[in-house]
Design brief:
Strand content of chain B: under 5%
Order of helices and strands of chain B: HHEEHHHHHHHHHHHHHHHHHHH
Strand content of chain A: under 5%
Number of helices of chain B: 21
Number of strands of chain B: 2
Mean pLDDT of chain A: 86
Distance between the termini of chain B: 50 Å
Structural class of chain A: mainly alpha
Order of helices and strands of chain A: HHEEHHHHHHHHHHHHHHHHHHHHHHHH
Shape of chain A: globular
Distance between the termini of chain A: 97 Å
Number of domains of chain B: 1
Number of helices of chain A: 26
Strand order of the largest sheet of chain A: 1-2
Low-confidence stretches of chain B: 494-511
Structural class of chain B: mainly alpha
Radius of gyration of chain A: 30 Å
Mean pLDDT of chain B: 88
Oligomer: heterodimer
Helix content of chain A: over 70%
Shape of chain B: globular
Number of strands of chain A: 2
Largest interface: A-B, 51 and 63 residues
Helix content of chain B: over 70%
Largest sheet of chain B: 2 strands, antiparallel
């Protein structure tokens, strides 16, 4: 391995930047931004050099002991293979673009330096997840991305809604982590190691090593992914997380952190047995449908995209469950490009309209914000899966995987979601960029500065070409064990139609249906015509199928109720009883003894004689 | 003289010296107290760095015979079990002395008591003789009651003083009875802990005697540590105590009972320990789950912190109950980590109380806007309190989970729920109500801790949490060998089988 030091630098530079900003440069905006951006861009450059020097088909592990107590051995290690190296590029590349964009977006904010410190902390933790070579290191970084997400969602902490959203995200994630940690404990208890390579080795040598607990262990670990990747039933935190600044939504709640669950599943794919995979596939499929339906009736520009993220994450999880980690990682990568692009374009719109997020107060931004318009269009086409945009290839590979596994329910589900996706994203597109100006703000909007539009253009390029530049080949070499599909560039563009013509053509058909439905309903609409047509269903969709209310009633109230009971017991029984007993007992003894102390000499004399009599009796007995 | 004598001697000598300083020399009084604890802390750091992990026997040992007829001697020394505790204790004592600027009345008396507390408890940790072990702890314990009664705050402080005095006195009394019974039953005619342990190796106590003495120590020490259901003194007591007192008591004194259990009860009474530890494993859920829920209901920041501190004790008991190397090492690790954390949180809540005049969470809000430094530190403390990696508590808790997993899987499942979910809920709720949200108008003139002298205690405690959280081997490599010795004494049978396995490699084919 060449440049052995580079991965360490890539990992720890952002942490150093975060520490330096927090400790020293909070007062200097420029220096803080420079440190943070410098760290991640250096990371990107070093990653490129490292991969060039070592090639994609290379696998290595470097580690140092972090904790060692008896049989508990935990390393701090770096696992370098195609999976982690591609993710390095995605995190530092997409992340770098978003860092640069943030300079423009956060320009007027008083917490500018704090923002970059949190961003760098996040980058470090995310890179830690990517590079981790064992479960505990992964869990540590997993928790750290959780806390950076918490800090950034609550970045505008004066707003009560931001504080609430941050709290909710943290707690819901903790629910998932509860299962995750138990899964880790189960695996360690049965196999005695936490290192991924060792675990893989043991399970290859003896596939039944986990015995009857295999399904349970797999599903417990999956719980972590359910929380982090916001899968049903823990999906409720992600839309609220949009309270954070838009670059954060793009980086953490679209491109990287929420995808960490999918990445983790691919990393430990060897641990999942068919039963566990089956559950995973259906949870993913259900989430993708549920979120797509909700997205159809949202009015907040960021929330629509957030539900879209949920839906796409559902796709990825479904792909893992269909034994297609290659397809999942491929979609994760292209999704990182186009979803970051969509969010950043939305952010550009939001800034232009002075923090207006309701799509029904926008409109006709096409000519005022041409760059944002075109880049958003590229993102929307990629998300919908229109050939030859990146999303087409990755989505197609997931649908093809469903067909290959003969799971026609999930295939139908995936195809339907593809149609819905096109419908809601073009609903957003038509209402925001075309039609009439629906507010004053919309008529006075103007294009964002270059520091914001440049990252948009870069991401748009990758959203366009990401499907056929060989990303899938890198991953497939990793999982299937064969060297990557080495088709030529031109052949790669048409590859899906040859590989699985049914999936590709059906997918495109539904995209077309979705597009024309959106066109006919929303091209000139001033208000949403759908509620009248759908009635109660639209209301349910708008209210996110009442999951928040349901959880509030069940989970939160239950915990509060138990807490109230415990508090009552504590106050009146434990404290009252114990103290009461001691106090009462002492008091009673005192009163009893007081009766003896009458002050009457005759009584004393009587007791004295009585005492002497007892002593005499005892002695003479 | 051993460096240990200086570590706990400096605060005690300073306390004595302060008696002769006139009470109105406020600066001198404070300077003497801060300086004495600073020297003590510096010496403790030096001792910690010079400590050789895994060396045979005790280090920095010193023994001076005192009452030969009873076998009492002045005997101090450290091994892996108490080296971290002494370091933590000395640093926390220094931080508490720094934070005592909030005391405005009868300062001289306050500092004398504070120094007695610090010196006493550090001495108790350093002692290897039962007599001094117990006596020095009492020396530290009694000032707590006086300090809460005289300098305490809130309406319920008299009740709190009453309750804490009763509970802790009973706990200490039970432990005393247990220790005396232990002395009599062992037949070694010595108060010397190493000698008692040596003696027990050849002449173990009868199971009958163990079953009688062990519960005395378990519940006596348990009450001192706020083992459920004997915990209700702690939140109320800490809620009413002046913050330096709460820092030292919650941070250091509370670890005495746990240390006593590990140091004395486990190796001397292995059979009884095995018998009782199954029970303790379930009791600790009372701390983790039940008190965690109680913490969720609190409306006063100090009561919340107090309850959360009680809840954390549950993890330590769980680690001890697992009676294996990983669990006990984890337990000792949390003892150190929690000491720093408890001191930090009480120091911060003390600052907020000093500035706002209230700790009712409904009246606070948005403090992060004005109190940048204090708010950030409180956020970090809350995160450390719900087990965020990077802080020392995470390492300890995870280690305990791993240690107890094979012995008590069901308990661990519930404990993980308590640690990750319930802890997460009450900590983020506290952050949400105190630090986030809009700032009430009456707090628009709050002053943050700006100068570095004021920031020092908080920064020091945070740094300690970070250092041991990021580089846990600094501590575990010291704890592990001696925890191993305790565990092998507490598990006479398994270690024998391990020995025979090592001698007979054929039996090692099960892997």
């Amino acid at each position: 391995m060449q440049h052995e030091l580079f991965p360490w630098l890539i990992l720890f530079l952002p942490l150093l930047a975060a520490a330096a900003i927090t400790l020293f440069t909070l007062r200097s905006r420029a220096l803080s931004a420079f440190l943070s951006i410098g760290a991640i861009v250096t990371g990107f450059i070093l990653s490129v050099i490292f991969i060039n020097a070592n090639g994609w088909h290379f696998s290595a592990e470097i580690s140092r002991t972090w904790l060692s107590i008896g049989s508990l051995q935990i390393d701090w290690g770096l696992k370098l293979d195609a999976l982690s190296m591609m993710m390095l590029l995605v995190v530092t590349g997409v992340g770098g673009a978003i860092h640069v964009y943030s300079v423009g977006y956060m320009h007027e904010d008083s917490g500018f330096a704090r923002f970059f410190a949190c961003l760098s902390l996040f980058t470090f933790s995310m890179l830690g997840i990517v590079l981790a070579n064992n479960f505990i290191e992964l869990f540590i970084c997993w928790e750290l991305v959780g806390v950076s997400s918490y800090l950034l969602i609550g970045f505008w902490f004066e707003r009560p809604s931001a504080g609430d959203a941050a709290k909710k995200a943290f707690i819901v994630n903790r629910l998932g982590d509860f299962g995750f940690l138990l899964g880790i404990l189960t695996v360690w208890g049965l196999l005695g190691t936490l290192n991924f390579s060792d675990l893989h080795g043991q399970l290859t040598a003896n596939p039944a090593a986990l015995g009857l607990s295999a399904t349970v262990a797999g599903l417990l670990v999956f719980c972590g992914a359910v929380g982090k990747s916001a899968q049903f039933p823990l999906h409720v935190w992600l839309p609220d997380a949009m309270e954070g600044p838009t670059p954060v939504s793009a980086l953490i709640h679209a491109a990287t952190m929420v995808a960490a669950g999918v990445y983790m599943l691919c990393r430990i794919f060897f641990l999942l047995n068919p039963e566990a995979l089956h559950v995973i596939a259906y949870i993913g499929g259900f989430t993708s449908l549920l979120a797509a339906l909700i997205a159809v009736q949202q009015d907040d520009i960021k929330r629509i995209i957030a539900y879209s993220t949920l839906s796409q994450l559902g796709y990825m999880v479904m792909a893992v469950g269909l034994s297609g980690p290659t397809a999942a990682m491929f979609h994760l990568t292209t999704h990182a490009f186009f979803k970051a692009l969509l969010f950043l374009s939305a952010g550009s719109v939001i800034i232009a309209l002075h923090h207006e997020q309701n799509i029904w107060k926008m409109g006709k931004l096409r000519y005022k914000m041409p760059i944002t318009f075109w880049t958003f269009l590229v993102g929307a086409l990629a998300l919908s899966g229109v050939w030859p945009f990146a999303g087409f290839y990755s989505k197609d590979s997931i649908l093809a995987q469903a067909l290959a596994q003969h799971d026609y329910i999930l295939f139908a589900d995936g195809a339907l979601v593809a149609g819905l996706t096109t419908f809601y994203i073009f609903r957003l597109f038509f209402v925001v960029f075309l039609g009439k100006e629906k507010s004053d703000g919309a008529s006075h909007a103007h294009e964002s500065p270059a520091v914001m539009t440049l990252p948009l253009v870069v991401l748009a390029v990758f959203s366009l070409i990401g499907g056929f530049i060989g990303i899938e080949g890198v991953y497939s070499g990793m999982f299937v064990g064969e060297s990557g599909i080495s088709t030529g560039f031109a052949a790669a563009i048409f590859e899906p139609f040859i590989h699985s013509p049914l999936a590709a053509s059906l997918g495109l058909c539904l995209v077309a249906i979705g597009f024309f439905a959106a066109l006919s309903l929303y091209a000139k609409a001033d208000k949403d015509p759908l509620p009248e047509k759908l009635g109660g269903l639209a209301t349910a969709m708008k209210n996110k199928f009442y999951f928040d209310e349901f959880y509030e009633a069940v989970f939160v109230r239950a915990h509060d109720f138990i807490a109230a009971v415990m508090n009552w017991i504590d106050r009146w029984l434990v404290e009252g009883f114990c103290i009461g007993l001691i106090r009462g007992g002492t008091d009673l003894t005192g009163r009893a003894l007081r009766l003896v102390q009458t002050g009457n000499l005759q009584t004393y004399a009587f007791f004295f004689v009585l005492g002497v009599a007892v002593v005499l009796w005892l002695v003479l007995k | 003289m051993s460096i240990l004598t200086y570590i706990f001697g400096w605060p005690l000598v300073a306390a004595l010296a302060l008696v002769f300083v006139p009470g109105n020399y406020r600066v001198v009084v404070r300077a003497v107290a801060v300086l004495a604890t600073l020297i003590s802390a510096a010496l403790a750091v030096k001792m910690f760095c010079q400590f050789v992990p895994g060396a045979n026997g005790y280090q920095f040992e010193q023994q001076i015979p005192w009452v030969d007829s009873l076998g009492i001697s002045y005997h101090v020394g450290v091994d892996g079990l108490n080296v971290g505790l002494i370091l933590m204790g000395a640093i926390v004592a220094f931080a508490a002395a720094c934070c005592s600027w909030e005391i405005q009345t009868r300062e001289k008396e306050f500092y004398i008591l504070l120094l007695l507390m610090s010196g006493g408890i550090l001495g108790a940790f350093a002692s290897l003789d039962l007599f001094f072990f117990y006596f020095l702890h009492e020396l530290a314990l009694v000032p707590t009651f006086i300090m809460i009664g005289v300098w305490g705050r809130g309406e319920r402080r008299n009740y709190a003083t009453f309750q804490i005095t009763i509970y802790l006195s009973i706990g200490a009394l039970l432990a005393l009875i247990g220790l005396i019974a232990l002395y009599l039953q062992s037949g070694a005619n010595t108060f010397d802990i190493p000698a008692l342990i040596e003696h027990a190796k050849t002449n173990p106590m009868t199971v009958h005697a163990q079953n009688f003495i062990f519960p005395l120590l378990l519940f006596g020490f348990g009450i001192l540590v706020s083992l459920w259901p004997f915990h209700s003194w702690a939140p109320l007591g800490y809620g009413s105590a002046p913050s330096p007192t709460a820092m030292i008591h919650a941070g250091i004194l509370k670890k005495f009972g746990l240390y006593g259990l590990i140091r004395i009860a486990l190796p001397l009474m292995p059979q009884a320990a095995h018998h009782w530890m199954n029970f303790v494993a379930w009791l600790c859920l009372g701390n983790i789950l039940y008190v965690g829920w109680v913490a969720m209901r609190q409306r006063d920041l100090n009561l919340l912190i107090g309850n959360s501190s009680v809840a954390h004790m549950g993890f330590i008991f769980l680690g001890i109950a697992s009676l294996n190397l990983i669990g006990v090492t984890g337990a000792v690790f949390i003892m150190v980590a929690h000491g720093f954390l408890a001191a930090l949180t009480f120091a911060l809540s003390g600052y907020i109380y000093q500035k706002t005049g209230t700790l009712q969470m409904s009246e606070l809000g948005g403090l992060c806007r004005k109190l940048r430094f204090i708010g950030t530190a409180l956020l970090m403390a809350a995160m450390a309190g719900c087990g965020l990696p990077g802080f020392a508590n995470f390492v300890g808790e995870v280690t305990v989970f791993f240690g107890a997993w094979k012995e008590f899987p069901v308990v661990v499942v519930l404990a993980v729920w308590g640690g990750l979910v319930i802890g997460g809920i009450y900590m983020t709720r506290a952050v949400r109500t105190i630090l986030h949200g809009p700032l009430p108008a009456k707090f628009s003139n709050l002053a943050d801790a700006t100068n570095s002298w004021r920031r020092l205690p908080y920064a020091l405690l945070l740094a300690a949490l970070f250092v041991f959280g990021c580089f846990p081997r600094l501590l575990t490599s010291q704890i592990e060998p001696d925890a191993g010795k305790i565990v092998s004494m507490a598990n006479p049978l398994p270690s024998m089988t391990a020995l025979s396995e090592a001698q007979n490699p054929k039996s090692d084919t099960r892997n």
